[in-house]
């Protein structure tokens, strides 16, 4: 069940900040503690930054979920950019980005409870993650 949903376009730098604080606000309203609020906000800004950096534009969807009495915050980051052809290397940690700060996709996966990437060369990328309360 979806309780609340919002779609935030990521078109420019300020949209990253907006998505980040929107996510943090939603997390706080849902009852997440400070540490999880920060995890959620960090994950959102990493995914939004990737959209801007590699796909130029896309969107972040934030939803509060309720599943068998458990509440969760879902983040979906979606774009129609070039895709991530080396996604397996990214996920197993063998792809080392030249400018990578060591957070990005792997860091976001670590911060979340559920994490999945769907990507196809030339088609785009969709990352879905959930943090359970
Ligand atoms: N939305 C996307 N579209 C296309 N390629 C992407 C996208 N997101 C990530 N990538 C590719 O996956 C790689 C890994 O992304 P990740 O965010 O983990 O690291 P990074 O962006 O290189 O470095 P960091 O996020 O630490 O600054 C990127 O270098 C880029 O090649
Ligand atoms: Mg990145």
Give an account of the 3D structure.
- Helix 1 packs antiparallel against helix 2.
- This protein has one domain: Heat Shock Protein 90, CATH 3.30.565.10.
- With 133 residues, it is an alpha+beta fold.
- The chain has a five-stranded antiparallel β-sheet, with helices on one face.
- Strand 4 and strand 5 form a beta hairpin.
- It is globular.
- It has four helices and five strands; from the N terminus they run E-H-H-E-E-H-H-E-E.
- The site of magnesium ion has 4 residues, from helix 2.
List keywords for this structure.
133 residues; alpha+beta; Heat Shock Protein 90; five-stranded antiparallel beta sheet; 5 strands; binds adenosine-5'-triphosphate; binds magnesium ion
Structurally, the number of domains stands at 1
- Order of strands across the widest beta sheet? 1-2-3-5-4
The CATH class designation is: Alpha Beta
Give the CATH superfamily. Answer: Histidine kinase-like ATPase, C-terminal domain
- What is the structural class? alpha+beta
Helix content: 25-40%
Helical stretch tally:
4
Shape: globular
Amino-to-carboxy terminus distance: 15 Å
CATH fold field value? Heat Shock Protein 90
What's the order of the H and E elements? EHHEEHHEE
Q: Give the strand tally.
A: 5
What low-confidence regions span 5 or more consecutive residues with pLDDT below 50? none
What characterizes the major β-sheet?
Answer: 5 strands, antiparallel
């Amino acid at each position: 069940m979806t309780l609340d949903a919002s779609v935030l376009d990521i078109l420019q730098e300020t949209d990253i900040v907006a998505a980040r604080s929107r996510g943090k606000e939603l997390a706080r309203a849902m009852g997440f503690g400070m540490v999880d609020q920060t995890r959620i906000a960090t994950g959102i800004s990493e995914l939004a930054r990737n959209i801007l950096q590699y796909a130029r534009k896309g969107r972040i969807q934030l939803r509060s979920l309720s599943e068998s009495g458990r509440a969760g915050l879902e983040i979906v980051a979606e774009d129609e950019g070039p895709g991530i052809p080396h996604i397996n290397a990214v996920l197993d940690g063998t792809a080392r980005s030249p400018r990578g700060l060591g957070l990005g996709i792997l860091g976001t996966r670590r911060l979340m409870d559920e994490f999945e990437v769907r990507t196809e060369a030339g088609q785009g990328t969709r990352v879905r993650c959930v943090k359970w309360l």
